[in-house]
Amino acid sequence: MIENAVEAFAIFCNLQNFVAVLIGVLIGVLIGAIPGMTTPMGVALALPFTFALHPVTGVLLLLGIYKGGLYGGSISAILLKAPGTPAASCTVLDGYPMAQKGEARRALDMALYASCIADFISNLSLILLTGFLAGFALSFGPPEFFTLILFSLTIIAGVSGDSLARGIVASCCGLLLATIGLDSIYGTERFTFGNYEMMAGLNFIPVLIGLFALPEIIDQYARRGAGAVVVGTLGRVGATWGDLRACFKSILRGSVIGVVLGAIPGIGGAPSAFLSYSEARRTSKNPAGFGKGAIEGVAAAEAGNNGVAGATMIPLLALGVPGDVTTAVILGAFMVHGLRPGPVMFMENLPMIYAIFIGILLSSVYLFAIGKLMIRSVSRIADIPHRLLHPCIVVLCLFGAYAVNSSMFDILVMIAMGALGFLMLRLHLPAAPFLIGFILGPLLEDSFRQSLRLSDGTYGIFFHSPICWLFWALTVLSLGLLLRGRFVVRDGDLPAAPTGD
Amino acid sequence: MKPAARNDMILGGAVVVVAAAIAFVLAPHAIVRPQGTESRALAPDFWPLVILGMAALAGAVIAGTTLVRRPNGGDAVPVDPAHAAGSGAALRVAAVFVGLVGFYFLVPLTGMAVAAIFLCLFLMCLGERPNWLIALPTAVLLPLALYLFFTKVAKVPIPLGLFETLF
Asked: Which among A163, A186, A402 is the nearest to B44, CB-wise?
């Protein structure tokens, strides 16, 4: 053990590794902050550069990009309401309202603190709990997956604003839109109308950008003259120690959620961010403030999002199974160097794995330093006059939407989503449930149908394991508490009866 | 009936009608159902129909609550005075969409960077009077910078339109 650790330090301690992690995190933060530039895209672009590097250096460069990208998505989500990644879309819910209130710097600071803490906890879990979490992840089949996603969907009740029925309508729109494309089992067409570009379904990024960024900007154009836009004067006031202390519980909870969900292949950061947000809202002293610029919401979303960063490496390193697209590319980097992650690698190349662990821990420190340096300058974006900023955001969004697939069709999708989002804004249909439905819908449907195929159409499979029962119980409990909270608040909101004074 | 309640009634009714139209008119044509599906729940149209049923139910709830609502309670969302748009606001919204759709059709002709410059200038004119000393260079330099970034750094081929032959 000690011999391996000493050897790992010997492998890690050279300038190349330190610089690789630094450059990786820096590139990742920049990529994440640009709408349309996704982390998998960044990692894939950097992959050829790793061929000439030592395996550890190459993998650390890619891991740096991955971790930086997860945090970077929050920058555009908070400042532009244009989340760079699906996971960062949860940060929009409270981050953008904070920026609108002139608290962009505070939101960015909290996003950074939550990201770094969650990332660090996730890294520690990777190092200490790989065996245990890999075993737990293996016990997740389609029925467990289905009940987990169903539980995650209960957040819709929490983010529906004043009207739950409106939230359900919005989430149904998202769920329905997610069914567009080829059927996952039979391969037949659903709502594609013969258009081959729709057969792969609608891409996340144009939908996210269109739904969040465009309606807000169009609404500002509609309101021109109705009232001047207040530019934040507190854009340079950061998060305080008190803010961090107040959010610490949510950050820890979100990190644990991120670690557990991140270890399960195929889940990714978005469900984790939404689940963490939902739990933070449910346990908060001020749940009504969520969605209106609650700093705790930003902390919870970012902790859930970044908590998966280290944990997604658990199935990759322990089992050789990539947890998401990015780790699949990283698996490719291992294989290019003749390494095959999994139990064999733990036996034959343990010092190399330990060296990667050291680099991963270092990436959290770099993330904090780079994030702190960047926030100083980027938070001033919130101070740019809207008449200049909004056209620039539109142009950025158009390039971003196009860049995902190099497709003009994605621009059309973005414009259509902008129109739909604006209509929803006018009809007071909340965008958050739509988004949750759109992101979680395919996961829910696929796991539901896979389960039924496994059981030959018997619904008992959804109750066959303790994990399923646990998530059913959590779903019922969560729904009960959310609905109870709704009715208690509503009764409390009723105006007091006239007293006659 | 108050305006907020009337709006809810219209919205709820519209949701029910649209959900029913998709379920009974659009879905049978737009979803291909293969022969001999193993069970109803595995059929490609099962999930969309469940979603549409939920949407219709929620729409009925929105419309229904306007009839049984307490005087000061219920789900009604008040009408935002700032959203009670006049014709000027509607024109500006329409103009933004015209600009965006115009951009879409302009790209094959002029390329993305030039189309983005036109769109940026158009949107700047549409908003409050900008300081052209700052606005003009921004409108030109930002699309060019994005073009260079995506083509040279990210290796994403950005369409050049008629300029394709020049570069």
From this structure: A186
